[in-house]
Structure formats: C-alpha cells, structure tokens
Design a protein that fits this description.
370 residues; elongated; 7-stranded antiparallel sheet
Length: 370
C-alpha cells in the first residue's frame, strides 16, 4: 500500500498564496468617444472651449479671412474672392503665406499695466505686452506673427515716430533685453504693424509658450508722448496633419434629401447644427454646415457613374457583375464618398483667442461605388 502524501497545513497554504505575484486586473476596453467628442478630435481640438467671452469682439480681419475661405459665403454673395479665383489649400491668400490656422491673440498684460506715467526728462513711457501662445500645438509651424498696435496719437511730429520692440523680462526680473527690431512709423492714425517672425523667434522654430515684449514709441521731433490703446498678435500657422494638397473645390450641385435605403448610390443631405451639439456658445461662424452622407444601392447599373459624376472603378463594376450572376459569390460594392470639400470655422478657444481654422474633407459632395 502506497503511503499517502502529507497534506500541507493551513499556514503553509497562506504563505504560498502570499508569495504568488498579484494578478493584474483585466484591462478595460477604451470607451469609444461620443459624436461630439469624435467631431472635436476630427477638428484637431482636445476639448471644447468652455464658453465665449462676453466682451471680446471679433476683429474685422478675422471676418474678412473667414468670408474669403468659407464656401457657404459664395452662395450668400458675401465672399470677397474675385470670380474664377482658385483658392490654394493650406494657404492664406490675403496674407500671402502658407497656413490653415489663424489666431488673433489679445495682449494679456493690458489688465495689469499701470496707468500711463507722465513723461520724464523728455522720455516717453515704455509698455510690456504679454501674449499667451500655449494653445498652439508643437506640430504647427508658424508662417506669420504680426504685431498689431493701436495708439492714441498726440500731435504728430513732422519727422514721425520710431517703434522699438525688445524682449521683456519676467515680472520680477530685469528690464528690457536686446532690441529685436526698430522701424519708422510715419503716422499713428492707422494700426502700426510689425513682423515678429524671424525677430522674436526663428522661422523654422516652434512657437514659444508665451511671448513678453517691451515696446517703446519715440517721437523724432518735439511732440507729446502717445498712449498705447491696444495690442494684439495675428499668428498664422500650418498644421500639416490637417493639410491635403490635392483638395478640390466644392461643386455647386445640391445633394438629394435623405430618404430610405432604396435608390442609386448618391449624396444625401445632412445638416450639422452647432447649436444641436452645444457648440453655439464658442463657434462664431458658421452656425452649421452641410456634411451630407452617402447612401444607395451599388448594383448594376447604379455601379456605373452617370455623366459628370465620379469615374466608375473597374473593381466595383466587376463585383456588381459577379453579384448579379451569383449572389452568394460576394457582396455588392459599397456606396462611399468620392469627392469631399473643406469648411472653415471661426471660434473662440479656451485662451480667449479668436481662431480661424480650415478643415479639409468635411463635406461629402459626390458618392460612388467602391
């Protein structure tokens, strides 16, 4: 008779269990984002701005740029682009630079700036302006950084003024650093503009997180000092992830109204309202856009494109032929977008900036069988 193996005591079992490595908790599958979050991700935004500021007006230059780019303005007759002009993708024609994101960034130093001191010993006061650039993604490449200044002019000297821009130290740090640029200003009735790209940071460098500048405006002759009324930064960047060089202009044909699953493959009308998704508090324009969608049958002869439509793919035609001859051999081709066009959006971001972004492939213009 074989001897029985001794059974381990309870204390030994507890010791063995304590020495075992802990079992990892099963990983949870990521929860798919909702429709609003998915659209935000498609637009390149991490989260929705919390709300539009009540006292922040939209600068006229941002309206002009939006109306020049937005295809819906063409139908309303408000577009400023001459007839027959082809808009290049990822290019801001009015400013003459590459880019698909334009930001109008206000001066953050105005609220903390003390009242204008009186000029002492013939010296006019200097001002420190601060621009928060933390909303700019590191992947964006700047193509223009235009400083825009408005002054409350005193009696203008005959020889004009001279503007100097220097790097400013931190709040508790030293005074102005090295002068970045100097330029002559003949008059102060219109906004004074200065290009910072290449002076404040290099052309091929990323945009800094913040920018502090020391400004000085000196008269070139006997005159009272001017007062800085407003400062802003017009920043144009190019995000290559949102740029499709082969984008095609939108056709004027209107898609059919949405209906049942019957009928040939074609674009169906679908309007996306920003109010319905709760974005109307921070989206300035447009109020919505025609996104459209593709629906319909791709059996013969629907798989063959009609006159003026997208070219039929040989693969789709062969699949439709095989399905007609032997329905169990394979499925029909799918009704998918064949031509997409862009939209432009003007909105407030979480940093109170007015932002114009251009997005490719947002509107379905034509559908085809694939």
């Amino acid at each position: 008779m074989r001897p029985l193996c001794p059974r381990p005591g309870r204390h030994l079992l507890l010791l063995l269990l304590a020495l075992l490595p802990p079992r990892p908790c099963p990983a949870r599958a990521p929860v798919p984002p909702g429709p609003a979050a998915a659209l935000l991700r498609a637009l390149g935004l991490r989260d929705a701005p919390q709300g539009a500021p009540t006292l922040r007006s939209v600068p006229p230059v941002m309206w002009r740029l939006f109306r020049r780019r937005d295809p819906q303005e063409t139908r309303s007759g408000l577009r400023r682009t001459p007839p027959g002009t082809t808009l290049r993708p990822c290019h801001v024609e009015e400013l003459g630079v590459a880019g698909n994101i334009v930001r109008h960034i206000p001066d953050r130093g105005a609220a903390a700036r003390p009242p204008e001191p009186a000029s002492a010993a013939g010296q006019c006061p200097a001002w420190t302006v601060v621009f928060d650039l933390s909303a700019v993604d590191p992947a964006e490449r700047p193509s223009r950084a235009r400083l825009e200044l408005r002054f409350a002019a005193a009696a203008a000297p005959a020889s004009g003024w001279e503007l100097s821009v220097a790097q400013a130290g931190e709040a508790a740090g030293p005074g102005p650093g090295a002068v970045l640029l100097r330029q002559a200003v003949p008059a102060l009735e219109s906004p004074v503009r200065a290009e910072l790209l290449g002076a404040a940071w290099a052309h091929n460098a990323s945009v800094p997180r913040s920018l502090r500048l020391a400004l000085a405006l000196r008269p070139r002759g006997p005159a009272a000092c001017a007062r800085l009324a407003e400062a802003s930064l017009l920043l144009v960047t190019l995000d290559p992830r949102l740029c499709h060089p082969l984008a095609r202009p939108r056709r004027e044909a209107e898609p059919a109204a949405g209906g049942g699953l019957g009928g040939a493959c074609r674009a169906r009308r679908l309007y996306v309202s920003f109010r319905e998704v709760g974005w109307h508090r921070w989206v300035i324009a447009p109020r919505g856009f025609l996104a459209n969608y593709c629906q319909g049958q791709c059996a013969l002869p629907a798989a063959l494109s009609g006159p003026g439509g997208p070219p039929a793919l040989n693969h789709a035609v062969l699949r439709a032929l095989m399905h007609g001859a032997s329905p169990g051999a394979g499925g029909l081709p799918c009704c998918v977008p064949a031509r997409l066009s862009p939209i432009s959006m003007l909105f407030f971001d979480n940093s109170d900036n007015v932002v114009l972004r251009h997005y490719e492939d947002m509107v379905v213009d034509e559908c085809g069988c694939r």
